[in-house]
Amino acid sequence: MRIDIITVLPELLKSPFEASILKRAIEAKLVEVHFHNLRDYTSDNYKSIDDTQFGGGAGMVMMIEPIDKCISALKAERDYDEIIYMTPDGETLKQGMANQLSLKENIIILCGHYKGVDQRVRDQFITREISIGDYVLSGGELGAAVLCDAVIRLIPGVLGNETSALTDSFQDNLLAPPIYTKPREYKGWKVPELLFSGNLPKIEKWREEQAYLRTKERRPDLLAED
Ligand code: ADE
Asked: Quaternary structure (predicted)?
């Protein structure tokens, strides 16, 4: 998989890709991540990427020309499955969406700033608009990092144990069950006895029940989804 991220703040984005699972996925060549500084696609001396709104109103708007130049240069090199715009008014990121995107070959992620981008960018280039939640960030970069993390860890081969992503919260619309490790007892707080029984079918059934109960209590909305 190849991910091209278009941003005005590449330095804000880089560190999540330089540690842990994302770093290993890049080193193992399971994913390539490229950062493109939008200011490299400007045509004036000030490297302007934004301007005031037509019709008046507070806040600057990202201009179409540098974005068009950057996206067109990328599209001239290869086909893209999705061109994603990170925005608070997009579709909310869910695990199912991350699963789908992890199967794509090439994606572009455009990070918005200020008030956002000229609507014509969205109309002409964007195939999908994604929000990471109902709150407004200063820009799309942190959202893009969240999206990439959620997607990259699902690429086959990225997680050491292939089954571990399958047992994550949300994979089957359920939250994950409680987990425990050593010591067996700490300050009198005990691990459920059943987990030492060696009865794997019973343990599995207990985990399923716990996942269901936790979901019912904390996120009943997930049980209503198909
Ligand atoms: N840019 C600003 N806020 C955002 C959000 N909630 N999700 C994605 N991109 C954003």
From this structure: Homodimer.
